[in-house]
Amino acid sequence: MPEIRFKAIVNPVAGSGSSLHRWPEIKDMVQKITSDISYTTSPGHATLLAAEAVSAGFDGIIIVGGDGTINEVVQATAERDIIIAPLSSGTGSDFMRSLGLPDAHEILESLASGIFTRIDSGLMEYGNRQRRFLNIMEAGFGAEVMLYVNSHRRSRGAFNTGVIRSLWKLRTYGITLRYGTSVLELETVEVVVANGRYFGGGMLASPDSSLTDGMLDIHIVGGMGRMELLSKLGKLRNGTYISDRKVNTYHLWELSMEGNAPMEADGENMGTLPVTVRAVPHSLSIAGKISGNSGAES
Asked: d(Cα 84, Cα 118) in Å, to the nearest integer?
């Protein structure tokens, strides 16, 4: 019987360094499963390490880092025969919120026992590039916020400052959204395309989304002024904004958007539209049994 092999990828600067502080707490647990541990040193490094692990035939990858590190690993492991075990230690941890996974000990036990759940990913195609996302991709206001956040990563309160700055220069975007044979001509401040439920460090952007239904939830926020949008931000945190009369929701497998809006996915800016986005069902294997959804468990 072939040996089961696991690789650990640790991002020591995730969560403004909280990953490095948490690492001693879980290092012993990880080392009981594998001694093959690599540390990331730059953006994109986790993707390279994960690709090497896939090529080397590892059975699973343990990820110690935030949503950004998990996203990097997914770029190399989606639609591959490998299990990932995320032990989140970043600032947002939105993917872990969407999963509802237990603590690190139980996740590692599931990995060692070969217990996993297959979940969906989202796939963006823009220009001549592709990018996977797990939580949310968006075009418009939220992407403007992330432009500020990502250029001020070391600043405290960068997200709140980004929201205020983006509100000050708020604008509507002309976006053409296509799905099937339908064409929507939009004047919108924001289009959210959701695979998971959370973004922005705990904001419930898409309360009805499932990681295992093979579909994406699209929330289109119509044109509104600064004060009106500001008044809705509290509803964004608890997900009730989707019932607003200026928000329209669609449940789609694939869509395309054209226009002049900036876009981001899982917290990383991706330039501007156009983009085609589709759900890729059961394309990732996550260690553990995900509670409250209908994933394909093994």
From this structure: 10
User: Within 13 Å, how many C-alpha atoms sit on residue 274's CB side?
Assistant: 10
Q: Could you give the CA distance from residue 89 to residue 27 in angstroms, rounded to a whole number?
A: 13
- Out of 2.60.200.40, 1.20.1260.10, 3.30.450.20, 3.40.50.300, the CATH code matching 126-280 is 2.60.200.40
Within a 10 A sphere around the Cβ of 161, how many other Cβ atoms?
Answer: 15
pLDDT digit string (tens) for the chain, length 298 residues: 456 899 999 998 776 555 566 777 788 889 999 999 999 999 999 999 999 999 999 999 999 988 889 999 999 999 999 999 998 665 557 888 888 766 788 889 899 888 999 999 999 999 999 999 999 999 999 999 988 887 877 677 777 788 778 888 889 999 999 999 999 999 999 999 999 999 877 889 999 999 999 999 999 999 888 888 888 777 878 888 998 889 999 999 999 999 999 999 998 899 999 999 999 999 999 999 875 443 444 4
Record: fold of 6-120+282-297: Rossmann fold (3.40.50)
Q: Which two tokens stand for residue 238?
A: 């608890």
Cβ neighbours of residue 32 under 8 Å, at least 6 residues apart? Answer: 108
Q: Which of 295, 122, 126 is nearest to 192 (CA)?
A: 122
Separation CA 198–CA 94 (nearest Å): 5
